[in-house]
Amino acid sequence: MEGLLTRCRALPAWATCSPQLSGYVPHRFHHRAPGRGKRLVLSRMFQPQNLREDQVLSLEGRSGELTCKSQRLMLQVGLIHPASSGCYHLLPYTVRAMEKLVRVIDQEMQAIGGQKVNMPSLSPAELWRATSRWDSMGKELLKLRDRHGKEYCLGPTHEEAITALIASQQTLSYKQLPLLLYQVTRKFRDEPRPRFGLLRGREFYMKDMYTFDSSPETARQTYSLVCDAYSSLLDRLGLQCVKVQADVGSIGGTMSHEFQLPVDIGEDRLAVCPSCGFSANMETLDLSQTNCPACQGPLTKTKGIEVGHTFYLGTKYSSIFSAQFTNVHGKPSLAEMGCYGLGVTRILAAVIEALATEDCIRWPGLLAPYQVCLISPKKGSKEEAAAELTGHLYDHITEAVPQLQGEVLLDDRTHLTIGNRLKDANKFGYPFVIIAGKRALDDPAQFEVWCQNTGEVVFLTREGVLELLSQVQVV
């Protein structure tokens, strides 16, 4: 037991519970039954399941589109459902995981001084024409006209909008800088060939931050600060990402880095030097280059999924829109800018791609839609007498471990065997699955506990279960 507790404490996915959120339990998510109190029960969850491979293939229309593990599993267990090419309905489990990810992002961004905003998805064409990106972005920019003939695009990014906002502030002082503004919103990109589910779609959620500094020196300090926050966030999720030098692309600027998760399905080709730690997207290197430019050691080639991207923009946008501040001498100066993106829905798919088995989803503890799944005995089985104990255990967990209120799910589908429900729970990836089986009838009752993220199975009394779960921390 002590060894299990130690290993659970050591898992990189456990993190500090938010005191503002841990005790809040929205009543609409709980289903009241006479004599049973408020319990979340699986039979009431909207969770369309397509657990057969042929059913999953038919969802996407063409079997060739199912080319990665995360896409297949997310469709199979009902995390997402196709709406149109490159667009997906995000279903309740996925929304819960995404809300948790956004809370982690908020914690990290606000810890470095970030302030949250929300900008319109519709962006006027004149802003994009001012930077020449209305034409240079090509067909990936989704364009439309309103009834008055005014042109807009559905923003894939918001450099123009945020810079115009800052330019409209005539009294910005150097004392207010650095200014770090960020949002988590839907973005749109007319991908020529959407694929890999949430990894490359036409509509997606992104965290984009924009920073404004008083000098190139302080702007580079801010750049390093945000990069460190990205590393901290990805470490908390247990993701072994690599920061690589990258091309500035259509966004521009003079310096850029990507945060890449090395996986075989990745579309980006990376070069990493084991000797000195140099790493780069192959786009920035000569394709024939085999030695590290920093130490001349051999480069190791791999593939990765880009989950984050940072840019030092300098005055590329502030000079166009006259985004100025009053400097220490009382004179107007152009703000030095940076922009920083995190693919929110892409991270959800990437963690499944990296952590899941071929058949079962595995979540970082911080992002798991529900932390605990309780499985009661099958109706009419020899163990049916333990059914009441399962309900009592549910109540004890939510009362004794307050951070797990709203995080415990009771699989009440008692027409199914324990084995069938365990198979489903394993596929969904709940970090802890607790079964009231034969040994629940012992004195004292022993519950079978499956710890999915450590691969261990133990039998614990009610007190042992509570002690184990008290170590779990959520956002």
Rg, rounded, reads 25 Å
Mean model confidence by pLDDT = 90
Question: In one word, what is the shape?
Answer: elongated
Strand portion: 25-35%
Poorly predicted runs are 13-36
Distance between the termini: 25 Å
| Number of β-strand runs | 23
Total of helices: 13
Major sheet, described briefly? Answer: 9 strands, mixed
Structural class: alpha+beta
Determine the fraction of residues in helical runs and give it as a percent range. Answer: 25-40%
Oligomer: single chain
Explain what you see.
By secondary structure, this protein is α+β, with helices and mostly antiparallel strands. It has helices at residues 2-10, 53-60, 69-76, 92-111, 125-130, 133-136, 159-167, 216-236, 318-321, 344-355, 387-400, 418-428, 462-469; strands spanning 31-33, 37-39, 80-84, 87-90, 115-116, 122-124, 142-145, 151-154, 179-188, 203-213, 242-245, 255-262, 268-272, 279-281, 300-314, 324-326, 332-334, 336-343, 372-375, 408-411, 432-435, 447-451, 456-460. Strands 5, 9, 10, 11, 12, 13, 14, 15 and 18 form a nine-stranded mixed β-sheet that branches. Helix 3 crosses helix 10 (344-355). The radius of gyration is 25 Å and the shape is elongated.
